[in-house]
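INTERNAL AUDIT FORM
Audit reference: QA-55
Scope: verify that the stored structure record matches its stored sequence.
Auditor: D.O.
Record contents follow.
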Amino acid sequence: KAQKLYDALQERAQEHDNWLEVWWDDSYYCERGPITITTNPSIILDDLPILQSIPAPHAQLFRTAQLIHTNMCFLKELYNNILPQNPAVCISQYNRVFGVCRIP
């Protein structure tokens, strides 16, 4: 079964620039069901030592500002086409991360 799947994916790779893109579009953007558990991408935030020294309400504001800043830096790199290249990661869909909404 594994060989059959591998062969099918190899054939699909010959027909498409990105063998996963159409499937991802169909399952994430076109599916009308809930996505929080099934397909919603997520991030894990590392604890920042500096947050330990900031009072709780201010720590939340600091973290929020940091997330906005980091996302805007990423967006700038994306729009200027200067993201670091990594052959193990397909970035063809990155331009769809910002400014896109999914209507449930």
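Auditor finding: record pair retrieved intact. The mean pLDDT is 79.
Action required: none
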